[in-house]
Amino acid sequence: MEIKYIGKTLLIEDSGERVLVIGDLHLGYEEAMRTNGILVPSGIYEEIVREIELVFDYLEKKRKKVDKVVLLGDVRHEFGRILKSEWKEVLDFLDYLKEKIGKKGEIVVVKGNHDTMTVNIVKKKNIEIVDYYIWGGLAFLHGDKDFDVVYDKDIKYWVMGHAHPAVVLQDKKSVKKEKYKCFLVGKFKRKEIIVVPSFFPIVEGSDVTGLNGNELGLAWDFKLGSFEVKIVEGEESLETLDFGRLNKF
Q: Is the pLDDT of residue 235 over 70?
């Protein structure tokens, strides 16, 4: 098995099959905020598509065709009723992914805590929404709920979203500070854990420095200080930078 960090996504290759993993999208965020009287920049959905297009362009240049896409939950933003923009953006995004992976490709949608009614949208594309997804030795989860099946001895990896991990880098005088999305990679109960950053472009996420899993809303009290940090360099770059263990920050 080979796991590659490509921008804010994961590419997992095993047994001749390639799976692209995408974290929290929060489609429809723009309308949800404006409905509540909060002004946000326009064009968020277009930015999401532009960024994922960079990933597919990179993979095409490497001649790596994606067989399956796993969305790690919180596909839409609004908790309750489905907003008009959520219908359009989710359906358009699923169509976009299907075009990229072809008719034989598969899209898996894991249910996040924001996805109370997402099933009503994805079923229009004959896609089921699942609590978790097992593929080989990997369990894909949103991260807010625990499931007995993921402790099976054949499961070696847990891949999850939900936490929106980020870290703050600053100079020695703390004059300049900047927050970056990041992956967190560590171990828990003999499982390899990968926490994926949100793909949502507007908010970087929660600074995980000094926190444990439960404090980020995860279902497990991961001791994140021992986790390795892989920083997403930027929206235009698909490089990730290894910054060592979180407790060294």
A: no
Residue pointed to by tokens 């600053």: 170
Residue 154 has pLDDT above 90, yes or no: yes
Looking from the CA of 73 toward its CB, the CA atoms found within 13 Å total 27
- Cα 114 to Cα 101: distance, rounded to the nearest angstrom: 26
Q: Does the reported pTM lie above 0.85?
A: yes
Residues counted in the chain: 249
Q: What is the CATH number of the domain that holds 55?
A: 3.60.21
Domain, as residue range, for 25? 2-248
Q: What is the pLDDT of residue 45?
A: 95
Handedness of CA 187, 112, 214, 169 (dihedral sign): positive
DSSP string across 58-125: HHHHTT----EEEE-S--B--SSSPPHHHHHHHHHHHHHHHHHH-TT-EEEEE--TT-SSTHHHHGGG
Per-residue model confidence as pLDDT tens digits over 165-174: 999 987 666 6
